[in-house]
Amino acid sequence: MPLYHATTRTFAAGEIVASSGANAFYPDVGPLLDAARPPGFPARKDCVFAADTVDAATAFAYGQGTPRAQVKVYEVDFVSSTHRGPMAIVHAIRKKLEARVAPDALIKEYWGSTRAWSFWETLGASFRVVVPVSTATQGAVTLFGLGYDSDVNQASTLDSWLAQARLMFVHTIKCRGSDGRVRNFVYEPKLPGLDVPKRWDIVVRSQVQSAAEEVFELQLTEFSPGVLTVTMVHHHEAPHLKAMGIPEGLLPHVRGHLGKRIESSPSAGAAGVFRTQRATKMWKRLESLGLARYDVGRDVYQLA
Q1: How many CA atoms lie within 13 A of 256 on its CB side?
Q2: 115-134, pLDDT tens digit by residue?
Q3: Which positions ≥6 away from 89 have C-beta within 8 Å?
Q4: Is the pTM of the predicted complex or chain greater than 0.90?
Q5: Pair type for strands 292-295 and 3-7
Q6: Domains in the chain and their CATH numbers?
Q7: What is the pLDDT of residue 192?
Q8: CB neighbours (10 Å) of residue 129?
């Protein structure tokens, strides 16, 4: 099957091309993928890349911001061992990193695909240039983008489904109280039903408390896709829950599993949703610890 490589460089037919250095496109993604690379697979840091079609190769070059007049496309033939991975996975991993969410399921899928994907990248240490070819037309690139979106959407669901599966279980978190002691707590999530907006209800208990004692409650509501708003948090003045650092231990843990951003309500919200003085005190404490930041324009705190 012919493969195609887009570049700004000029190659001669028969020329052997190898990697010229670290991949500059999403440089923080490569090390993560290489760290999970199965034995014998090529390392991205030492690889050159090719696409299955001229349209995909051209679109990739345009996506990197390369001026169209400078793009050249060549048919190539790898002369080293190769790996084929879904193109959309790389972009999806970058989005997870921006959200500070571990992209474990995406990395696993890249090296051992189990789903049907439309567009693939082939990587290897070197390839032989076969012949130059014409770049794709703008219309062809546009059509490629429409098809590629389906792969992007599929990639975005991988860790979401994994997160929901994980959240079906009871989890243990370590929390440091105002007295400096570290204690273990467990939290039990209730997955959202079919109601819109979706709502996650989470209860937290001390590992040593009785079933009759009060629980710490957290409610997260998804008013906007991918963003969970803290709509209720309460320790019920229970001595075994108050000033125990539960929000500091709980919120980052939940975000890591759900793969969604978490933020506060505004101080003056709509439909009865607003940030209380007690909640503001909690968020200011998170901010002082470097766990949250305040968005002045929107009047919300965001988990950092």
Answers
A1: 9
A2: 889 899 999 999 999 999 99
A3: 106, 109, 110, 155
A4: no
A5: unpaired
A6: 3-156 (3.20.170), 171-303 (3.40.630)
A7: 64
A8: 17
